């Protein structure tokens, strides 16, 4: 994909997202299309089949042929998104995982966001946590 295609795709995605949010909300709306699209792109890096096709279609600026599959998922998110990933047994470590995500958020936001995940939000039935924090300083 050419750089201009990616830029136009991101702008189109952002405008469509704001239109949708404004049609649903009354009053002020704060959202970060870049953060949302980055989170979805990270997720798409581990998707396959129809799920991947739908995500690529929705995001508009991803090239389905260039997305690595699961075997390189951790390298993809580390290299391109500076994101972290780890395997967790939520059956026995749900509260520990919640604490780790909150610690990550606190460190990355310089203490502005200390509780991204409230108590009880991570359960033994949780299969994945995808966290993203946006703050103003």
Automatic annotation (TrEMBL):
Q: Kindly give the Pfam families that the UniProt entry links to this protein.
A: Serpin
**So what family is this one in?**
Belongs to the serpin family.
- SUPFAM superfamilies reported for this sequence: Serpins (SSF56574)
UniProt domain Serpin: residue ranges: 64-136
Q: InterPro entries given for it?
A: Serpin_dom (IPR023796), Serpin_fam (IPR000215), Serpin_sf (IPR036186), Serpin_sf_1 (IPR042178)
Species: Riccia fluitans
Q: What is the protein name given in its UniProt record? A: Serpin domain-containing protein
Please give the start and end residues of each transmembrane region: none
